[in-house]
Specification:
Shape of chain A: elongated
Oligomer: homotetramer
Structural class of chain A: mainly alpha
Chain lengths: 135, 135, 135, 135
């Protein structure tokens, strides 16, 4: 069991009717995506065609920031606020979509964009899955 | 002219039809609110009635994270993506509302909650103003 | 191979003489510790003895912030600056030590502090290992 | 009086013998520098000579992250830990120095680097001033 899942189990109060598996998957996807986007933006900076990658860098930087914030919000359960959780998940899914689409354009040329696209798609789906399960 | 405004003026490409004053006001409100919420959550921790303030702490922590991310996204203009900007501003306004409402409950007892409520309201309005101006 | 390791392999330029295994281990420890500290601080907020846990919350919040920043700095390789890397690793090890020590005090009573202490110790050691390997 | 200063005044416990003016100045410098570095890195991405600015982008990204974390740590006063504060201030001053030096190289050509250099120098000095005052 991952540390994320173990800490969720150690939360001392009732979590309500949240789907624990989807919640854990989403937190894990967010922190993986934040790191991947940070690394992809940096790899872009070291490519000889960096001038073609500026949109990719910008979108990855946004995605890293939003995924980190979403991973944090989802790691807190005290005084749960459905409106906040939903709006943050929407923003995260939207940004992962944008970042995944842009990395997709560069995936044929750059292995880091290929990896980052996969991770962004996984995180987008994890956010949508969790959103759907919130009813 | 603030550093935020000076840096916006130094951006080398066309910014499109964004309302510069509302954009600057929103970036400034986001970074002010991120700091205020961090400080308010910490002040809550040092109050003798901390057990009554746990919802306030949690909401302020979320608000600090989302305001920081929003301030970053709005400070980037390369390859502007309207969907990302809108969804992040929605999440920020929603969270500032939640944090402002919770601080409001404690404003009669704690000066930091009174200050933090004001800053959260200002940031919520700055986000809504900018959202409206995006058309 | 983890996504962190795969992205390191996809970095397009020479990484110099860094120990790749220690670098990957440190990035993974930082992002794990950032999440664990965020979750532990929140779990503290929901404990009935929250008034005894305020130092733990504060130290975990610092540790989450510094671990996230350290994970980001270590995920970038373009234009490596040894002074920056070293000073950030020092700050991260110092903060993980403080957070691990404080969680240790509460480990007999709270499972989340027990888990969080382990993760903080692991991250502190990963930072020190990487620092030592930098020569 | 700035919101940062007002919130410091509203902190409910004794702050010890810290120099309040230097503390407020340092928090304000950190949040100003985090925003300036985010904006400068983005402006770099939109310059026609972006390939010459990759070190500047990387250093500004690090500096934004470390300044934000330092501003947060300095905004917390509950259970003050001198070792953590010192090590974070050292890392922040080191990174502001690196970022200011790199922006200095591009200051003759780019107004955003000129502005960002000034802000980085101011933040480096504010960190050193506060460090010195801690004894």
């Amino acid at each position: 069991m991952s540390v994320v899942a173990q800490l969720l189990d150690a939360y001392p109060k009732d979590l309500g009717k949240v789907d624990r598996d989807k919640l854990v998957a989403c937190v894990e996807a967010c922190i993986e995506c934040a790191q991947a986007c940070t690394a992809c933006a940096d790899a872009d900076l070291s490519e000889s065609d960096v001038a073609e990658l500026t949109k990719c860098i910008r979108t990855c930087l946004d995605c890293a920031d939003i995924c980190e914030t979403t991973g944090r919000v989802l790691s807190r359960h005290t005084a749960y606020d459905a409106n906040v959780t939903r709006s943050v998940l929407e923003a995260c899914a939207t940004t992962c979509r944008a970042s995944g689409d842009e990395c997709h354009r560069h995936a044929p040329h750059h292995a880091h964009c290929r990896l980052c696209e996969e991770v962004c798609r996984r995180c987008e789906h994890a956010c949508r899955d969790l959103l759907d399960s919130l009813g």
